[in-house]
Amino acid sequence: xxxxxxxxxxxxxxxxxxLDTLHSNWITSGPKVKALESEVISLTGLKxxxxxxxxxxxxxxxxxxxxxxxxxxxxxxxxxxxxxxLCVLHCGATxxxxxxxxxxxxxxxxxxxxINAKTKAIIAVDIAGLPCRYExxxxxxxxxxxxxxxxxxTAIQAGLGRILLICDAAHxxxxxxxxxxAAQQSDITIFxxxxxxxxxxxxxxxxxxxxxxxxxxxxxxxxxKLFSMNGQNKDAFAKSKGANWRYDILFKGFKMNMPDIxxxxxxxxxxxxxxxxxxLRKVISMRYCDAFRPCDxxxxxxxxxxxxxxxxxLFPLRIKGITEAQRDRxxxxxxxxGINVNVHFIPMPMLTYxxxxxxxxxxxxxxxxxxxxxxxxxxxxxxxxAELHYITDAVIECVQLVKEINKLVKVAS
Length: 413
Known about the structure:
Strand order of the largest sheet: 1-9-8-5-4-2-3
Shape: globular
CATH architecture of the largest domain: 3-Layer(aba) Sandwich
CATH topology of the largest domain: Aspartate Aminotransferase, domain 2
Mean pLDDT: 97
CATH class of the largest domain: Alpha Beta
Order of helices and strands: HHEHEHEHEHHHEEEEEHHHEEEHHHEH
Helix content: 40-55%
Number of helices: 15
Number of strands: 13
Radius of gyration: 22 Å
Structural class: alpha/beta
Largest sheet: 7 strands, mixed
Number of domains: 2
Distance between the termini: 37 Å
Strand content: 5-15%
């Protein structure tokens, strides 16, 4: 067999939606984007949604909207994809990294220790689609002794009057927290629609607004739509209607809009998500757990607890008592057997650029511990029963093989 890691879900509904867009003769931002935004609002129960061309673009936009800049700090987990910190650096601010818990989510107590007068925002990352501990994070940023440290530098910051909580929900569309969509737990949630995500637009993302009073989320939506289009007061679709060519630039914006041809893919997928695509992911995750639970080396990932449930974006297999090198050998053996896997993620302090900025892996021991033992297995709706059985059998075989090799090496030494 040759089993890919995460191919996009492309069925006839997706093809038809894309063809409909092509036949419409309108492929840049227009009605399909608006329809996708409406579907995201329905899925999350949030107040407004702005589709953009990537998660990274959405994060850069929102940090700029909040006025984050040089001299400011934004708290992020060390265990995440680099974009979580790069968006902060692109604003001229400093990412302050914290360690994670054993469930891959950021440790609220570590966050507390890093808060100071420079802290403007926290970006909590829902690794593998598991919501962070949002009750603790929300309580933390509202504590009087924490709020009093917050120094407002803009009117928007003064309006909020506290640290901004952003959810990096690149993995977690459809996740649940306290019986409601997890996206309702933060001020701003940003989804990724990258090619390997639960819902994809090939490349893309979506900013979801859940801002408290005195903010008007619809007013902020209107501003952000302009912000994503160079600050231009009319988009191309509006300009195309009759003698409507004249436009103005109202402020310095970005060019980060999503085109309709991309939105069409996500639109067809999101309409199938709750009733089909997401449940199929859950079934695969449960079957992995059932297959590996008898193995004494298996560390079962947290996918569902009393107050939270993941979106089953990844299946983060972890192997007890294994080293990074042994984990890599397991991966090599799986690849030989035609199974493509991944690792989520290489902690940022291990990456060349972040090392050059002075971040050190030794300061984040649990991030390294989880990374060294983790292998992300294929999980997607079109994974067949035969492929799933093949994967589980191969994983058990490969882990046992590497453990036996390790025993022989120890005896020989």
